[in-house]
Design goal:
Elements (H helix, E strand, L loop, with lengths): L4 H9 L10 E4 L4 E3 L13 E4 L2 H6 L3 E2 L13 H4 L3 H10 L2 H14 L3 H12 L3 H19 L4 H7 L5 H12 L3 H6 L12 E5 L7 H10 L6 E4 L2 E7 L4 E8 L4 E7 L5 H11 L6 H9 L5 H6 L11 H10 L5 H15 L1 E2 L9 E2 L3 H5 L10 H16 L10 H9 L6 H12 L10 H10 L5 H7 L7 H9 L12
Parallel strand pairs: 2-4
Antiparallel strand pairs: 1-2, 1-3, 5-9, 6-7, 7-8, 8-9, 10-11
Length: about 500
Amino acid sequence: MHIDSERCVRAVRSKDARFDGWFFTAVLTTRIYCRPSCPVVPPKPANMTFYPSAAACQQAGFRACKRCRPDTSPGSPEWNQRADLVARAMRLIGDGVVDREGVPGLATRLGYSTRQIERQLLAELGAGPLALARAQRAQTARLLIETTSLPMAEIAFAAGFSSIRTFNDTVREVFALSPSELRGRLPKKTVVSPGALTLRLPFRAPLNPDNLFGHLAATAVPGVEEWRDGAYRRTLRLPYGHGIVALTPAADHIGCRLSLSDLRDLPVAISRCRRMLDLDADPVAIDDQLRADPLLAPLVDKAPGRRVPRTVDEAEFAVRAVLGQQVSTAAARTHAARLVTAHGEAVTDPEGGLTHLFPAPEALAAVAPESLAMPRTRRTTFTTLVRQLAEGGLHLGVESDWEETRARLLSLPGFGPWTADVIAMRALGDPDAFLPTDLGIRRAAEELGLPSTPAALTARAAAWRPWRAYAVQYLWATDSHPINFLPV
């Protein structure tokens, strides 16, 4: 979008928050970059130039605006609605792969050379993978400076910097303030916690929390997830350790309280929580397209801004999808809870009832098949899946190619279109995944006057592309028991 200067200027003049994260405005006279909704008086168009990423602004010598704080914008919707190389690379960078494995590790995961990845990222985002990761480190550093009482040396290494000098130089360059000056700007009444981190996760309005948090709470596995005091809480398996997160819906943000065993996991934990809640979606664009169908329009108008509830762990979700085949939600939770108690990794939760991490594929692959209380065919499906995940024959991650992974899942015994597509929708993040065989979807379609047979409904849904996963959320919302029967 940043190459359409006229459109960008209109967005800046109208201070349209819907475009925050889509592009950044750099002001040539002040050498400052802002989000489109910055509250200051817009500069003259001749003094504006536009960049597709904060990293590109920083590479060009601009510093972040102290008023609108563009580093806290929602992420671009582009990276969660596409499956090409750039989008997959951006999802991996957000998941901290460059900080942990370097650019060669990023290239290995994507199956391309480092030169190809750098060339494509530079062409589309104006910055290479190292610059993009550096911008993320700067954002993490600011968050830790402003929300904790940690010494600066600890913050530097927790944010992913290799040295305190690099940390200091980067913070000064990006924010035009030293780390100590950033902390000194906090209001005197601000209280920083020595334990859990409390932050706000921004999103593009509107956001309807009913289906999002309702679905997560309804399917919560005891010990791993819970709904407590108006918040969805769960344990997190992270690269350097584990964590516990509490997510609370509010009018203009999601409250996020994080307890981490290793602070280096902070950016990854935030990225995974945002992905689970689908906070980087563009609900206006999605709802406008779905509203064009006259039979869907009343559903969209009644409760706009529905998101697709996703996951913080793709392998975990795939296992739970198999456990839920052809049984009730309650039975699926019971099966999962037994596995958690027997094979999950114990954690301590002083604030609630969370007790375990969901078992890793390696732990589940060691389970004796005869100990699984499920039909023989589903037992075979389960053991094949966890063995493939544990041995690396099947990889489910943010970098997965949606179509290739769907085909790989369908080749496994016991995997039908419903299971493959619900994993594509909720684990892989495919915004166009569709479930025409789902009982709740067919029942809702019939009530609305839409075709109810899978083939006819799929044909009708072609007009909803590429947002059919969101149409599923609207259709599920019309049924009083949308998740009590899960087909194969």
